[in-house]
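Appendix B. Raw example, untouched.
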Amino acid sequence: MKAPYRCSLPAAAFAALAATSAGAEEPTLESLIHPQSQIEVGAGMVFDDGHRFGMYNGMSDSTVNPLFDASVLYRDDATGTWLRFFGNSTGTEGGQARFEHEKQGQWNYYLEGGRTTFENSRVIFSTLNGLGSTSNTVGATRRELDLEMHREKVKAGGGFRLREEFKVDFSARVERKTGGRQWGAQGFNFAVEPIEFTTQEYQGSVSYTGKQLQMQFGYLGSLFTNDAEAVSVQNLPAPPLSLPLDNMMHQIYVNGGYSFTPTTRGTFNASYSRATQGETFFTPPTFPGNTRRDLGGEVDNILLNLGLSSRPIKDLSTRLKFRYEERDDNTPRVQYIAPPAPPVTYDGFNVPFSRDTTTIDAEADYMLPMNFKLVGGVGYEHWNRSSPPIRKETDEYSGRVELRRPLLDTLSGSVGYAHSERRGSGHQLVSNPPVAGLTDPILWADRSRDKGRVTLDWSPRSDFSLQFVGEAALDDYTDDRFRGPQDGDYYLVSLDANYKLNDEWDLGGWVAWNETSIAYRTGTATTFEADLSHIGVAVGVSLRGKLTEKLKLSGDVQWSEDTSEHRIKTLIGAATTSLPDIVYRQWMFGLTGDYAIQENKGIKLKYGFSHVSADDWTWKGMVYADGTTVRIPDREQTHFVGASIYFRW
């Protein structure tokens, strides 16, 4: 299984970093009632490698790209009617716009649309032709492939009041997704999946708002269609591969709340949905006796949420939550393939999977003397699954307690502890030394978890604040099995600070570190243990302020590192060498200068820099059976320069 193409801070964050506005001001009451309109137009250019930077905006080539941002607002004070228009575009491959017309408290309608582009940032060399079609062919010329996907959407909606207590809302959305996506065919040949998806979504609701009772009845429908049925590589000995089939979902729901007394309130939510998949298979069934031409997929889902909150006395608040979900898979069970020879035991039938989940949670907080607040809670969760999987039922019990207090006038904090126990039925028997057989997946195995959390919030002066969060969790898989999950742990430390240097300048910074680990044993003839660990470190600094009366500056610097360690060792059998670590590092720097030519007009200059390195063995030397190679760049440096002019009124 390939490791994901990870980046600790996505390219979109870099784009936002480079384009950030300088010296944002606190809104006033007048600015909220009569907000300013603004239009900003300009151009930007990317230099050097732009694979990651251009993943979602199409700005991966060293060409001039347009930049546009608009927020046009108008309010008729006499009638309380609003006209709003929002739009933005970065580059030529993406953008979005929205128009709204509203008479406050009576009616509104809107229309929005957008287009986004995803460019595959992996470097692919292949002879494959017919990209984006259902018929690929292996050619003679090896070249670099540029794969991209486009997503276009249009949505319209609105609402109106029937009477003071009743309101109707409705919306419709159509989304079209096209392009080609990296894929693999049977036999590990390379293929490109043609993307020809259309998704339609329709929603409507009627709401009632009374003094004590509030309710909403609604409908949600979703329809998915795929114009492409299958993809094949014509001159390779591999059968066609089926593509996602058409499907639909319909849901009705009701939710709301009721205030029994001024201090006691109940909430509820209930829904029923049915999802179906009935498109005809692109090839007829081949197993004798199977005459099905479609899956006949049908899944019914029932969801119920109940809540009750109360404050019976001045210093005590209580909350109770109940949740029940039932997923009933009514897909016909049919034999599609012949069963294999022993010792393999599957029967060739599809396996519908149903489950139901019940969750109960109770919590209370009580004000103690000396401004202490004690918070406590208990929880229970029950899972019941159809057969298989390995465990038909699991039960998890949890308890938590937290103590909060303002320690000083400028310092407050909290300390909390939680413990949970998970047990279940249908255990697979595994001996020591191990024998052939399965082990419970991590999500279903018996487990004890202890978790602690500490927070501090310090504001010694009006111009300085500091926040600290520390968390730790320890997992113990307590069934004493030789194979399967053994133990795990999680740690997090983060620190955020903000300092107002003077009336013109603000300085901020943050640092965070986290580590997640788990030990897992597996194997048959060669049994080994992997002590998997992921470590993330990130640091950031921001500075904003006025250099002169007309010039504002905004700068951000961020650094991050993600490391995955495997630490594999042999327990029984031949010696095993651990896999290498996987390390991703990224530097990002963004600087924006905002010069006010006049009170309502100005120019912005923007610069961004990103340096990304990837030491990932899973994407080094990746070669498909047909000779196609796929890799990720080991190192990328990207510079972004932009200029724009804005007008406000």
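End of appendix B.
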